[in-house]
Each structure stands twice: as C-alpha cells, then as structure tokens.
C-alpha cells in the first residue's frame, strides 16, 4: 500500500491479475506492475502497488484528475496483460530454467523468440537489447512439460560429443604413431637389404679383380 495516511486515502481501485496473465509466476506479476509503472506519469508511479495477485491504486481525495488518468492507463494495460510479451527473467521463472538453458535453447531454435526489446538501464545512458517471448507459446511449453525432454536431449548430445571427441583423439594418436613409424623406416634403409652370403669366398677367388 502506498505510504499515504489512511485518513487521506479516499480514492482506491483494485485490479486482479488472472492466472492466464501470470502463469502462476510472481516474477511475471511484478513485471506487469513494472510495465504499468513505466506507462504512468512519474508522480503516479508509486501510487500503484502489487499485493499478491492484486494491483492496488490509492491516492488522496484531492487528486481526482490524476487518479482518473491513472485508472485509465492501468485498465488499458490490464486489458493487454494476457498478450504482453514475456521477458527473460519471467520465462526463466515460469519454466524453472537457468539463464544458460534459455540462451542455448534460444540459439538452437527450440525456444522461439517473439522479437527483441531495447531498454535503457535505470540511471544509465547504456541501453540493452534482449529477446522476448510470446505468452501463449510459453504457456504451451509449460503445459507440455518440454523442459525435461530438452534436458534429456542435451545430456544425450553432450555424451555423443564426448564419444566423438574420444574417437577423434584415438584416431589422431594412431595417425601420429603411424607417421613416426614411417619416418623411422625412412631413416634406416640398411635394415631392408638382405644379407649376402658367400661374399668373402667370391672375393678370395679374385673374381672382383
């Protein structure tokens, strides 16, 4: 609840986030709150808070015009809540995945991107760009439980990669060994010449003179 004395609060409105909008994620609920706050004027941002799955807007009685404007913005955003794109930290919480898994599955196409978003970090000039995801796609992935399947696929792929690396290392060692043997044979040609028997007797008879 905003820090306003209870005796001053006469303007109050509550909205409830649907399970379809949050997919049971408190991180997603907080993300929707932040989306609403980003659309509100600076003077109204702190007037809306999240309590569980409820968004509460509270203002003093003397701010009817500001309250009405905020109600319109929040109501419009709530109507879009079930279509708002899912940002990285939200999909990680919804699917219970690690950042490294998100990057890997996004790169290999298993986790389809719905586009990118560029935002400026609070208090900084630097901007960051990140992929966002379609809420319906995320819901489908959650319902089908594909994360466990993907992890199994990754384990198998990693094992296959190790087997190939071991085979390649063995093949490389064999080739090096064969190359060394070939060089050794080239350096010792005399070993390939058969021994000539009776040569001394042939020389004694003077046949070479």
UniProtKB/TrEMBL annotation:
<protein>
    <recommendedName>
        <fullName>Mlr2029 protein</fullName>
    </recommendedName>
</protein>
<feature type="compositionally biased region" description="Basic residues">
    <location>
        <begin position="173"/>
        <end position="184"/>
    </location>
</feature>
<feature type="region of interest" description="Disordered">
    <location>
        <begin position="173"/>
        <end position="192"/>
    </location>
</feature>
């Amino acid at each position: 609840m905003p820090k306003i004395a209870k005796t001053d609060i006469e303007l109050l409105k509550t909205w409830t986030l649907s399970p379809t909008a949050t997919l049971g994620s408190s991180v997603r609920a907080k993300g929707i709150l932040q989306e609403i706050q980003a659309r509100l004027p600076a003077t109204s941002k702190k007037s809306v808070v999240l309590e569980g799955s409820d968004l509460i807007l509270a203002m003093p009685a003397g701010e009817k015009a500001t309250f009405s404007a905020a109600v319109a913005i929040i109501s419009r955003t709530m109507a879009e809540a079930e279509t708002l794109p899912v940002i990285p930290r939200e999909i990680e919480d919804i699917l219970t995945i690690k950042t490294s898994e998100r990057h890997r599955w996004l790169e290999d196409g298993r986790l389809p991107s719905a586009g990118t978003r560029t935002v400026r970090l609070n208090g900084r000039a630097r901007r960051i760009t990140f992929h966002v995801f379609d809420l319906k796609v995320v819901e489908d992935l959650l319902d089908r439980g594909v994360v466990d399947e993907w992890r199994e696929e990754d384990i198998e792929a990693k094992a296959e990669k190790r087997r190939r690396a071991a085979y390649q290392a063995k093949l490389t060692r064999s080739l090096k060994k064969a190359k060394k043997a070939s060089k050794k044979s080239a350096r010792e040609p005399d070993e390939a010449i058969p021994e000539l028997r009776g040569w001394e007797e042939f020389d004694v008879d003077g046949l070479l003179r």
